[in-house]
Amino acid sequence: MSDSPFKLHENTNEKKAFSLYRRQLLKLASIFPVTGVPASVYAQTSVTEHSDIGSEKALQDPWLSLDAVQNHLFPPSESGLSAKQLKALNYLQKKLERPLADHEEQEFLFQGVGWLNDLSISDYRRRFVALDYAEKEALLQKIVKSRAGENWLSLIIDNLIEALVTDPVYGGNPDGSGWKAIGQIPGFPRPQAQDRYYELGYQKRQRLYRQNDEKRLTKG
Amino acid sequence: MAAHIPEFDVCVIGSGAGGGPVAFRLAQAGYQVLVLEKGPWLKEEHFFKDELSCCRHSIFTPDLADEQHVLETRNDYGDWYSEATSQSGWNFWNGNMVGGSSNLMSGFFYRLKPQDFRLKSEFGAIAGANIEDWPISYDDLEPYYTLVESEVGVSGHAVDHTFAEPRSTEDFPHKPTAEHPIVKRIESACDALGYQPLPTPRAILSTPDKGRRSCEYSGFCGSYGCASGAKGSSRAALLDRAVKSGKCHIWDNCKVNRLISGADGKVVEAEFVNAEEQVQKVTAKIFVVACQAVETSRLLLASVGPKHLKGLGNNHDQVGKNLLFSAGGAGSGDLLYADLDPENIKALQTRGPFVNRNLQKWYVIDDEELGGRVKGGTIDFLLRHPNALPQALPQKWDDDGNLLWGKTLQKRIKSAISGQQTLNFEVFNDWLPTDNCFVSLDSSVKDRWNQPVAKVRLGYHEHDLKVGNYLADKAAGVLQQMGAKNINWSVSGSPPANLMAGGCRFGTEIETSVLDPDCRMHDCENLYVTDGSFMPTGGSVTYTWTIYANAFRVADKIIAAL
Predict the structure, then answer these.
(1) pTM for this entry
(2) Residue B217 forms contact with A (CB below 8 Å)
(3) B55 found inside a domain
(4) Which of A122, B4, B19, B415 is the most exposed place for a label (fewest CB within 10 A)?
(5) Do the Cβ atoms of B287 and B296 come closer than 8 Å?
């Protein structure tokens, strides 16, 4: 087994790379070899197959590992709701289903699951979900020292925060419980399903443009 | 063969604060008006307080892969360095929709003052700055400032102070909007320091008017569209009424590529790309360009013709030159709830009413620290933006740049959202026009329709920073007096893209200006520019009220010319 990209920069001073633009980082990550389950296998796993988010038994990787990472990063706490209470996995799955979803972001998330489990098996001979709390923490503290690992965790945390503070119409923050937990007063009027950002303005136009581009390519 | 009859009397390109008054007044006067707007037509029913649509996935600006800019800044070696915004991620668009970025303003409205019209005469030349007096005076614009108060709807209360502008009416037509409890704290601090806090006028209706509802105090105002119609956007206040007259037609999602001029130098038609991405043309007797400063210069430079070989009105290389932003900076301080009793905490937690206070004590500064009498500026106070997302996201990093998670992160997020009220301030002072701040066409980067994009050199004058720092220090002193913690502020030469003007300055000489005093192009008699491009200097306040007022003034000139 070759090294995981999550180990590449361990014990080096190269981790302060987060000021780079995300696109460049994703590009950087994409050149690393995938040593675990190929991303294409994950990509073939339909989100809709795992719509029963409430049942952990229904989850398979990459969702199973992502769910475990989310729950570790956002545990039950007095200061905020846990990933599970926020429906953070549902938020992430719905986000990746949006019309203008960032496929590079999805690829990076799924690649990271492979890298994480490679390292987990290498260090503990078990996949991440099977580790106890201290082992999970130690493993995440280890991968955050790598550039790719830090960016992967940072991306997951961004999505956790989005699940905490964005409107419930996007799949997290059930009934505004995230807002309530942190003392946020939302504005009004709030969006309904037909008013989500990708149904409006330039986001809607962007969808049309992408469709036009695909038609041109097909004709070409 | 019969002579071709133009399809419209007037074609207005751009529908923001520069285009709206022209369309409104000409439709009111019975002329057939067409407004071409590159963005979509979003209305009250489309504006939601959505954390994602405001700041994460903008519905108001193009995807940078489709339409972008090239920005030129100095690198660490002092050399100019260009980068396309699709690469840098620095989005230089504002609000591209019917009504333009006036849909997204916070609506704090200021008139210029008489001395702003004669900056060179009042304060003298500054080496390295292209300062010129305006060809009109405050008195020429005053009736139109007053007209804006009633037509757009400005709420406020006029008070006397050292730099109060002369008014032709005693007070505003609308009483001030409801005020946040933090205002009392600002006033107490200012009183203690011997400063006179001034009520800030706001282009937001405190009572219903002309078919528009009054403010409903959601608190999510700046950067968001207004769902009640109370905000005085060009669309809500003017264009909706213009359309109702039956004389004004708005074609949204139509981006003008170029204006086509004839052998006599006059503009004949506008060529545009419509929503279906088809190239079309439309004719009119008079054309009005109001695309916001950068895009107005881009359109003119792209519009070459037999008499305009370097772009419309650019025979003397003046188009795009002397671009302006608002100089100054911003700062903030926290009123920590841990230091306050429950009653005061509850008051500070109030969401909705406005912080209508500003300071103009230093609109002119006479201080040896700045070398004597110089033009100063305005300090405006406001609450931090209510969207929790941009407040929560940075909490994942500790002070050393380490990524945080778990209970530590959750605690930080909760504290950032509900551990204090944060009072911000913004400083506005003159962005001096220089040879290093201008718009040109980029030679290689094209938009989705293969048109050259605007390249913007973003140089600034060091004097701007001196004045900005002076003012920011005074503002920080107010926060300190209020007992705020974590006070910090920043003044830099980085331009705020939402506060731009200049590029087609008006004047009396064709060699040094693009437009005549009526904002008609010197060498193109049927073309007017009515956004902020006309301004030779910008003053030390936000521009929107002045753009509205001048556009109303020019509308009267166009009516006289038709």
Answers:
(1) 0.93
(2) no
(3) no
(4) B4
(5) no
